[in-house]
Amino acid sequence: MALLHDARYRALFYQGLTICIIGLIAWSMFATASHNLERQDIATGFSYLSRQAGFVISETTIAYQPTDSVSRALLVGLANTIKVSVLAAFFGTVLGLLVGIGRMSRNPLLQRLMLLYVEALRNVPLLLYLLFWYAVIINVLPPVRAALPVLPHVYLSNSGLAIPSVEFVRGLAPTVAALAIGLVGAFLIRRLSLHRRLTTGKPNHGTLLALLAIAAPIVLLIVLDGISLKFGLPEQGRFRLTGGMQVKPEFVALLFGLTLSVSATVAEIVRAGIQAVDKGQWEAATALGLPRRRTMRLVILPQALRLIIPPLTNTYLTVFKNSSLAIAIGYPDLVMVSNTVMNQTGQAMETIAIFMGAYLGLSIAISLFMNWYNTRVALKER
Hints:
Oligomer: single chain
Strand order of the largest sheet: 1-2-3-8
Helix content: 55-70%
Shape: globular
Largest sheet: 4 strands, antiparallel
Mean pLDDT: 85
Distance between the termini: 43 Å
Number of domains: 3
Order of helices and strands: HHHHEEEEHHEEEEHHHHH
Number of strands: 8
CATH superfamily of the largest domain: MetI-like
CATH architecture of the largest domain: Orthogonal Bundle
């Protein structure tokens, strides 16, 4: 009992007691649910994951056949979710950075256009935009035989987007290894050049050397004929498009909607970060003769980055979770594939637990990475 008078041990005791109570409640709920399911003769457990899936998935990021297992089908859904979320976060960040800088423009027309863009996207539910863009693609765009040439060998129609494709015939594993070696080399060169620049105060070509370090192993692999690539270019025929990669309209609508939604949020985060930088930084840069563009790039944005990263983490978590709205337009993400699995097997609790665990795990991974990066760019007090 004497230990309970120590605040440290008392805190540990209460935390342990809380964990035990939560664990007891969870076990009681699980036991009750298992008993009720068994009484209704409903199968439980995760053995169904090894059964044959028996259904088609319209778009797959990794190889899949209906004869594959249920676990493979769920993995395809997870890969589709990750693919569209990462692409939306990347394109949304780039577009949001440009819009956020445009919000700070001295041109009143550009400033108000960017304000209109942000307000229109932030004040309408994302689901409505997804349905709107999907309806535009399906009902407004021309059919495949009259596809719009957006860029050379890039066509847009009501069947989706046709883009050039690259396929590894040979050398995928060596390419990945060469890229990994190049990235490690670039990281070391960059750190060494930065240390030398801080020590001597003289500029160097560290960034250029780092880019060369990334490219060198891959170029060497190409010279040694270790890579064989097959390129496909879409060609417009009389009735259809041939060659290249065909991106389905569900993916195009989802990516477009998520990207615009992310860009509006990122734009406001960037604007707030820029405005939080002390006005004296602008004045000091102007006194040194720096033009406004270089001041923004070299002085303001690096300082604003420290303020932008924390809210940006929440934005990336949101876009990952918002990708579950894909089910409304028929894109086979993790939620849609899980619903099909539940209908096929009747084991809803286990399937829901799996995709809840997947969302939780990936959200935690995103948070850990962004927190690590935030720690690296944060000011360190001495």
